[in-house]
Write a structure and sequence with these properties.
The structure is a single chain. This protein is of the alpha+beta class. The protein contains five helices and four strands; from the N terminus they run E-H-E-H-E-E-H-H-H. The chain has two domains: 1-39, no CATH class; 49-85, no CATH class. Helices cover 48% and strands 22% of the residues. Strands 1-2 form a two-stranded parallel ribbon. The protein has a two-stranded antiparallel sheet with strand order 3-4.
């Protein structure tokens, strides 16, 4: 198991792409990869499963598209007005 905390912080778009390519190689080698990350776009594009926390509580868990569609996640991470649209 590989646990990374904010691995893409401060990286350029190209560096993030290289990082995710490397992590994809680890995943195919039967290594579980857990990322703690605030880059929502990066996570929804590259992760098989998301678990979203807000103030230490899990507010959503599951497939990226499903998780990012919940009112709780939209309100917590995008803003309350986005959840109502």
């Amino acid at each position: 198991m590989l646990l990374l905390d904010e691995p893409s912080a401060g990286m350029t778009v190209d560096e993030k792409a290289d990082l995710m390519h490397l992590l994809d190689q680890y995943r195919t080698a039967d290594l579980s990869v857990i990322l703690v990350e605030h880059d929502i776009g990066l996570m929804t594009e590259h992760c098989d499963r998301l678990v979203v926390f807000d103030f230490g509580q899990v507010i959503a868990s599951g497939l990226p598209h499903d998780v990012m569609s919940t009112e709780e996640v939209l309100s917590a991470y995008v803003g309350p007005s986005a959840a109502r649209q």
